[in-house]
From TrEMBL:
Domain HTH araC/xylS-type: 193-294
Database matches in Pfam families: HTH_18 (PF12833)
The keyword DNA-binding is assigned to this record: yes
Name the UniProt record assigns to this protein: Transcriptional regulator, AraC family
Length: 295
């Protein structure tokens, strides 16, 4: 992690309770309902606070130990190891803590309205109410947080739709964490043909700022329903379809030898030649240069 100057984070004030050094941040990418940031906080004592949003903290860097009051005048020592996650529910108390080490986290905030919208889309309510949890492991949630901070670190090249998918997946994981397994459900019905055609026409504009919420609202379905019905109709997610359309358009332009690959990338909505190369290889298994030489 690379951190800049010391400052106080507005997004994670209740969790940090003091200045910290900030590394990567998604705050300027305008993601809906989700913000991720890298933070390095110095050792010291932090009093209890009330969280004003849902916050997930993923421990990174070196292990560190926090001491919490036990309510009887003593302290309880809790080791914090890389990969551990702490979840603080909006409106709940962030416990007082004393640390002797630098504490490095990737912090992720989820707006209550965003989490509630995901909860409304679930086909079955969680068995338990959402509550704060300290120092637990959850590999799927950890991987989603890492994907979010990686995307933020690159400046958001894959677009808001990709971040929206990850945020939705993280919220769903958080809501259903520890819930009993459910029986397999019936395959969802595909999106009606006229709605699918309209959606595909919107997605053919490779420079349009689209996100899952907008596409779902215009179809008349919830985000969860729209995602399942689009997948049933197309065999892929909206984000995957957009990438496939961009690659197909890039193939067309590459057949015209006059276009440099950097111009092809810009014309197809990729953030850079490197971004196009990465996606092109993921979809077709070859690089743009290799493909051009083969035609």
């Amino acid at each position: 992690m690379k951190f800049v100057g010391v400052e106080e984070s507005k997004e994670f004030r209740a969790f940090l309770r003091g200045p910290s050094r900030i590394g990567i941040s998604s705050s300027k990418l305008n993601w809906k309902g989700v913000v991720v940031e890298e933070h390095s906080a110095e050792s010291g004592e932090r009093s209890a606070a009330i969280a004003d949003r849902h916050i997930l903290g993923l421990v990174c860097g070196r292990p560190w130990t926090g001491e919490h009051p036990d309510g009887r005048g003593g302290f309880i020592s809790n080791p914090n190891l890389p990969g551990m996650i702490t979840f603080i529910k909006d409106g709940s108390t962030v416990p007082a803590i004393s640390t002797r080490d630098v504490c490095e986290h990737v912090l992720c905030s989820l707006e209550s309205s965003f989490l509630n919208s995901v909860l409304d889309e679930l086909e079955k309510r969680p068995a338990e109410e959402l509550h704060s949890r300290l120092g637990f492991y959850d590999p799927p949630a950890r991987q989603i947080i890492r994907l979010l901070i990686a995307e933020a670190g690159m400046g958001g090249p894959l677009g808001r739709l990709y971040a929206d998918h990850l945020g939705h997946a993280l919220a769903t994981r958080l809501l259903l964490m520890g819930a009993p397994e459910r029986r397999p459900r019936r395959s969802p019905s595909p999106l009606p043909r006229h709605l699918l055609q309209r959606t595909l026409e919107q997605m053919s504009d490779l420079h349009a700022e689209l996100d899952l919420k907008t596409l779902a609202a215009e179809s008349g379905y919830s985000r969860g329903q729209f995602l399942r019905m689009f997948n049933a109709a197309m065999g892929c997610t909206p984000h995957q379809h957009i990438l496939q359309v961009r690659v197909m358009r890039a193939q067309e332009l590459m057949r015209q030898k006059a276009f440099p690959l950097s111009d092809v990338a810009a014309a197809c909505g990729f953030s850079s030649h490197a971004h196009m190369s990465r996606v092109f290889h993921q979809v077709l298994g070859v690089t743009p240069s290799t493909y051009r030489r083969s035609i």
